[in-house]
Specification:
The structure is a homododecamer of 138-residue chains. With 138 residues, chain A is an alpha/beta fold. Chain A has helices at 19-22, 27-37, 51-61, 80-88, 127-137; strands at residues 2-7, 42-47, 67-71, 93-97, 119-122.
């Protein structure tokens, strides 16, 4: 059972970036822990700051993987192209957000991709990723 | 460790109501299964169709319980009073929705309570409740 | 054949309240006349100012009665929960309004429940209720 | 007692047009049945696709007839001129719609003429016309 | 020097229609007085309730007449087609309104044709027509 | 002279709830002081979290009391039904708010009930209630 | 194979009207050339400035012709009635515009009829009509 | 019979300012001509760039003069205070504009003062003032 | 203890201006009575129709007086500069309005200065000023 | 004569992606057919999911090619940068869409690039590309 | 070479007013330093809280000075009259703001005058003025 | 002291692209001159049309450089991801624009990145870059 976590723009800076909002743990160390929690799942990780590369990765994994955990970062609120990519593939996509996006700026309350995903989890810090995984493994 | 699941309007009809959207399982049988999954947690359930009674229950549990899993149903989109109640209490509240509210009517995309909750889980059917519980037990 | 008329907030004051808008007849005496006009129909009446009690009554009657005539009063314009309740039940609901809501304040022009009802009758004074009954008996 | 039913654009195609929305009965045969139901009422029928001809007919009948049953079709949502015509005449006008316009496109939810009419009946199929007649004969 | 006054929908009812807003003089008698005030001007009058006929008349007079005084009535606020007709012709058009449209309903504050006309005069009762004539004769 | 103070949702938590916004005094002790300041006035107090019960209390007191001091809490911004209740009764209602609602979230700037009340006092902490009383006793 | 080109308001002035926007060729001479290009197609032409007459022509041809090329002119942006007429008929309708309507006024960017048509071609001058024909003959 | 022309901000630069929009005649010379056209009318002129001084002048003349011709310039679109001043006085005020404000920026299409004035004349260049005078002398 | 009442535009006409809205008492006589009610308070009064002079007066008194009672009149809804002035000074400002601004035109419902003031009192006629004073003396 | 077809995001999945909307033919086989239809035209094809690469390709071909047929996919509705690229180059660009974007989600009705293109063709399935080519070859 | 710095409302309080936003230096001392930095430039300074006086100063200097550095303060967001004044004069105007207005309240993001100025500099504290000067001297 | 100028989409075409808006100088030659003006500053230049590559460059330089001068071109108005990148780094970013974006299309008036930058300079042609540099060197 293959599942991929795809992280969008600026999430490579996790642990350095606005630590009061996003916490001070970097994603690589978190990912290592997560893998150890789910030893039976073939868990992959991909990050890009380029919208089109995220689309490419969705296309590449979206017909054979069992699930995609997707944090589209800032593209969540602006990308019709990513929303179309999610509609175009077969693998279920779970949208995650680290922070509670509803207690932040107004423009973060809208999501172009939410309606195309299976479900959405937000506000639990990095634990949002584990919950997304849980939902796919269920 | 005491955790309460609070369900808002029309969720008493789960299993009968619009089964293509909400599934055909009633909440009572789901709740029984959930309790058996988490035997160490003191898990309670409350449902009311009356906005003010939901506020009362939040007040009653919101200073002593370890967590509240809250599906405010239709009040999610219209109730400033419920949002104020969540702000007023100490216990963390996790907002859940059974359906993917972002693929439904426009007015369901807005939430008055989301910004006051710890986090939000939507779209996983009844499994949304389990994930919410997971997040609180973490 | 059982039909119930459900009246929402402030309609208990009919005959006393803003008589230039709503007329000076109270609903009880009107209801008596209406019953005498339709002796073969089992006609009931319920009124509450509490949104959740209106939901309860819709649930209670909405699977066995032949029709519901519903004047949701001020909740017409604000209640997603009532709209969900109408969607959740099987009995056809006819929305009525005493006054011509389109010649009143802008916020009365929108209805959250209209799309969930079978039809809508407004502006004929108390006669709106009789017309709603006519539509259900047809 | 003279009452006229005035139908606006595309209602001449009733029975052929989008039958899932408007039903498969043409208006002429329905009108014949309606006349037989109300033998004492002098009932007339007029249809035009031309906005200005509808205005002309409202002017022509609006000072001597006892009532007008008006389905303005698509002009309902766009015509200030028809609204002004209804304000300009003395005969009470009852607005009718065959379908439940509130469960259709957003632009059908607004009516420019509703505030100028005596009342409004929508969603009961062709029976909306009979109910409108009932309201005028009351 | 030929000048035509073109009146749009419902202005044929002037003197009968909502006299508190539009006054109780009919346009024909006013027009006779106006002609006698400007004996040197070849003054014509046209009225129609049909939008397309107003367009036809603008086309017909709009390349040879010296001026057009135009009260588009309710079409003022809704007709792109009339605005296009004014742009398409050569004769200067002066827009007039009898009432002060800015102290009436919100939708009367917008004009689709105003930007295409030479100027606009509103609020002076029937005297608006004389002022428009004055502006063209200047 | 009978005057009632009616408090809406979450105001039962005054003194515990968001003390930086609402202060740390509970309403009961404040009310006792207020009564002692106005010994000649028959001063009552009522609180409920249920919208419909607030409507009931307005109906019950709104035809015989000399004045109502009303803090509708979160319902201020969402309840057409409460606004209708205030219109329906005879007793003058003074709207009060503890905090300066204009320096808080945007949705708190709108009030559905303000236009139906005699006047409005906001921002003076609990002293807003005394000022409201002063205005009624004047 | 019968195909009709229907032109809406002001298109009778093509060649005279705002030549910088619409070109200086009149439609009749263009239509003659178009017919000679497609000798096997029974090609007809109709123009009217009256919205309701355009509806009449759509009804008349919309059940027997193989295709309709429709330039609704200014009614494109305002006519629900024309949109309903297109929905009501069986013949596929291709919407055309001579100018690039997206580089003109904001109100020309919206189309009420576009969603009801098979496709839309705009901005190619009179060649838009030939392309529409091409699409229908394909 | 005393009539005053009041000009608002930047109108002192008439003849120098944006001559393609406002023409190249200064107001003083125009005013001299206007006075000679109406020798029997006691015609005054006042200009200020200060909103409050315009209010002062309206107060000063608004109870004794027979008419006020008012071009509020840029304050037309932003000043509630000037609108209130016009409501507060007894003398009829006629609003004038030199340019056709409807063919200029969107924000010039709205007027806060129009609803408070007797009538409005715009687009006729400086002749707008003469027409305003004509309307008051009528 | 020095307190100043500052009145904005058109309030110099109190007693003459729209007496059905603002009452028929002029402010000077009211102010005299008010002073006699609070003999221990050094009470001043200032009025100007000029926005910038109101700013000057706020600057002048805003660092030494104990309180400012401010009715900004029409500037309430349009003046960022006055809002900035209130933020810039140290003295608490209480906003007052004579009429119930929420039952008047829509544009009066918004206030640019409310969020910068200590509190707000509206709808009590001239008594609003006394209540404001009460709040400052508390 | 060199013409390039540029396809934006997700169009590489044509034939696999949402076949009910986009059909089941992949673009490569369609392109082969198209080339055979226009043997005299040097026809190229480029696809990328990366917005900036589409800009690069527009820059690269936009000064020497005779025409560009551009389907920007989801970037149509969100990309100012692509619109700027089209403005920056000399080669005429024809915008195409496979589906009728006006009968889909609201956000697809707006186009940031349409005003910068020569013309626009939408709704004809893959035939939209041939029509675009036709328009450029004309 | 004469250049004037014009400061609008509340900028006279610089150094005292909201020092966390605007810094604690008063403008006079800053201005002295600035003059010493540009000994060859004839540098003047003017401040007023009155909108109309700012217009007067723009008129007075706007035909002879080489440049105007303008901080319109709160009038930036509300004054059409100041925008018109800038359009009316010949001297280039550079708009400056001390704070980063885009990280403050929403209403500060809009500027009525920006489109009329040569350029705009914001967010650099008092150094914004020096940069503006630099731009004019270039 | 290292400072980098980062240019976004289409700015590689400077000197060729819309020269009436952006001037006819290419950026490379301008950059050479700029370097010679500031010999002590280590000045670098980077341009990309790809949003994600701009993010990468901001990450790469944003923790060690002394300043970033950033012209995000069309991404200014649409990119939450770039705004997040600016928030995520430590180096101060100054936003520049060549043209006066406020006198261009409405959608260019909004900036998603402005609130995250230190300051903003627009409208001075290429000199905007020098002024930005000046601000950083200050």
């Amino acid at each position: 059972m293959k599942i991929i976590i795809i992280n969008g723009p600026n999430l490579n800076l996790l642990g350095t970036r606005e630590t009061s909002v996003y916490g001070d743990q970097n994603f690589e160390s978190y990912f290592a822990k997560l893998k150890s929690l789910y030893p039976k799942t073939e868990l992959e990780y991909y990050q890009s700051n380029i919208e089109g590369e995220l689309i490419n990765k969705l296309h590449e994994t979206g017909f054979s993987y069992a699930g995609i955990v997707f944090n589209a970062g800032g593209y969540t609120h602006t990308s019709v192209a990513l929303a179309d990519a999610i509609s175009a593939i077969k693998t279920p996509v779970v949208e995650v957000h680290i922070s509670n996006i509803f207690s932040r700026e107004e423009f973060r309350h809208h999501s172009l991709i939410a309606s195309k995903c299976k479900g959405r989890i937000s506000g639990f810090g990095l634990d949002s990723y584990r919950l997304a995984l849980e939902s796919l493994l269920h």
